[in-house]
Amino acid sequence: MEKTYLMVKPDGVQRNLIGEVVARFEKKGFQLVGAKLMNIPRELAEEHYGEHKERPFFGELVDFITSGPVFAMVWQGENVISTARQMMGATNPKDAAPGTIRGDFGVTVGKNVIHGSDSPESAEREIGLFFKQEELAEYSKLINEWVY
Ligand code: DAT
Ligand code: MG
């Protein structure tokens, strides 16, 4: 089953949005297989956002993501990578549709509440950066019979 890496960013943690975000993915029908509250070491943040290292906002982005704890998660489900991106909304909350996480809770692009992997390759890479294999719980849920 497909897996993705999702993370409530430091603004979302400070604004008490962990439960709200988790609830949305649970209610959708996706399955949580790993989660932890953590401070991201600067080196890990730079690696995670490596694709943006030449962008003018890179320093600010790394400062922000290391400014407080994040809630790191792995979620599983059919098409979870692209569906989670849709549930997150556009990168800039000013363009994110109401009903999406960024549309409902964000205002500026710098503090947009949530990160989500954007492709199967990035999901695999990011899950590997943040979680050890033994931190992921492989389990079946009876409710999946009513989702699939
Ligand atoms: P996403 O988080 O939707 O995958 P991204 O990978 O393009 O977006 O950028 C990573 C993060 O960097 C994004 O969530 C917020 C920040 N960011 C993106 N574009 C920015 C910009 N023009 N100015 C400041 N921060 C930006
Ligand atoms: Mg991205």
From TrEMBL:
Keywords: ATP-binding, Cytoplasm, Kinase, Magnesium, Metal-binding, Nucleotide metabolism, Nucleotide-binding, Phosphoprotein, Transferase. Residues 1-138 form the Nucleoside diphosphate kinase-like domain. The keyword ATP-binding applies. It comes from Mesobacillus jeotgali. It is an enzyme of class 2 (transferase). Major role in the synthesis of nucleoside triphosphates other than ATP. The ATP gamma phosphate is transferred to the NDP beta phosphate via a ping-pong mechanism, using a phosphorylated active-site intermediate. It catalyses: a 2'-deoxyribonucleoside 5'-diphosphate + ATP = a 2'-deoxyribonucleoside 5'-triphosphate + ADP; a ribonucleoside 5'-diphosphate + ATP = a ribonucleoside 5'-triphosphate + ADP. The modification Phosphoserine is found at residue 122. It comes from the Bacteria. InterPro entries: NDK-like_dom, NDK-like_dom_sf, Nucleoside_diP_kinase, Nucleoside_diP_kinase_AS. Homotetramer. ATP binds at residues 9, 57, 85, 91, 102, 112. It is found in: Cytoplasm. GO terms for molecular function: nucleoside diphosphate kinase activity. The modification Phosphothreonine is found at residue 91. Pfam families: NDK. The active site is at residue 115. The keyword rRNA-binding does not apply. Belongs to the NDK family. This is Nucleoside diphosphate kinase. Signal peptide: none annotated. Its cofactor is Mg(2+). Its EC number is 2.7.4.6. Gene3D superfamilies: Nucleoside diphosphate kinase-like domain.
